[in-house]
Amino acid sequence: MRRGRELGAVGAGGDLFADGALGSRTAHVSQAYEDGDGCGHGYLSAAQVRDHLLDCAAHGMQGGFHAIGDAAISTVLDGFAAAARTLGTERLRAARHRVEHAEIMNKRLIAGFVEFGIVASMQPAFDRLWGGTGRMYESRLGLDRSLESNPMGAMHGVGVSLAFGSDSPVTPLDPWGSVRAAAAHCNPAQRMSVRAAFAAHTRGGWRAVHLDNEGVLALGAPATFAVWSTPAGVERGLPVLLAEDPENRGPADPTPLPVCRRTVLRGDVIYEEGSS
Ligand SMILES: [Zn+2]
User: Fold this and answer.
1) Ligand 1 centre and the CA of 15: distance in Å?
2) Which of 76, 101, 125, 204 is packed most tightly, with the most Cβ within 10 A?
3) In a domain, 191, yes or no
4) pLDDT of 109-159, one tens digit each?
């Protein structure tokens, strides 16, 4: 942990593996895979999670875990509960620890994220690529449980802090595609508004690293922004990302996405379309 401090890390976590991945059937799930043997693998015990969180608290660091399957997420939450018994829930919440992916969830697990103030670092493109009938989540888990995957709408609805990303190179860097994927979730009950998804993909990432005032355009704030052209138009200050006809919404939505023209970092132009 001291090494992490010396290196200037904002946290001790990221992909600290509590389990594997669904593609290789190594994500730790509570019921056996439909298309393979066993329930995957958990690589951490609740006691290890607890000890990591206590160590993080001793060094004032944020912790984080990669957890995809419901069994792995459950183990991580057991570790949080154990750490809370030592630290108190408020102190644990203040550290704003994170879970990466949080794919196979349920109501009890979502309640744990709320209780411990855990930031869910999620990838809407996973739903676009693997959600829905006949896709990977269904073949691995069956239709009913696949519908419980990546429940960003429900999590946002109960106040879980979301930070969106691509998990690049697992999915391509495509922020507007991710915003759209969250707004056009395969499970209509999990759809977020474009505005809420946009916030999760901008401010949400900064909030996840405790920089609560970044990620917005404001007078006096650092001039860090991107300029986009919006071929489908703008509605209430945000680009139109969704097809007018709800039938066309979803993974194959034909609406053209915004194109980046310029990127400015703290006043310096670092990307300009057409210049090399
Ligand atoms: Zn990961």
Assistant:
1) 5
2) 76
3) yes
4) 999 999 999 999 999 999 999 999 999 999 999 999 999 899 999 999 999
CA 275 to ligand 1 centroid distance, Å:
34
- Does some domain include residue 245? no
Whether the full predicted model's pTM is greater than 0.85, yes or no, is yes
The domain total for the chain is 1
What is the extent of the structural domain holding 185?
2-214
Write the burial class of residue 156 (CB in 10 Å: 0-12 exposed, 13-18 middle, 19+ buried): buried
Using the structure block, give the residue that is written with the tokens 């895979």.
33
Q: How far is the CA of 8 from the centre of ligand 1 (A)?
A: 21
Write the CATH number for 30: 3.20.20.140
Statement: residue 218 has pLDDT above 80: yes
Whats the size of the chain, residue-wise? 276
Q: Would you call 174 exposed, middle or buried from its count of C-beta atoms within 10 A (0-12, 13-18, 19+)? A: middle
What's the 124 CA to ligand 1 centre distance in angstroms? 14
Q: Determine the distance separating the centroid of ligand 1 and the alpha carbon of 25, expressed in angstroms.
A: 14
Q: Domain for residue 235, yes or no?
A: no
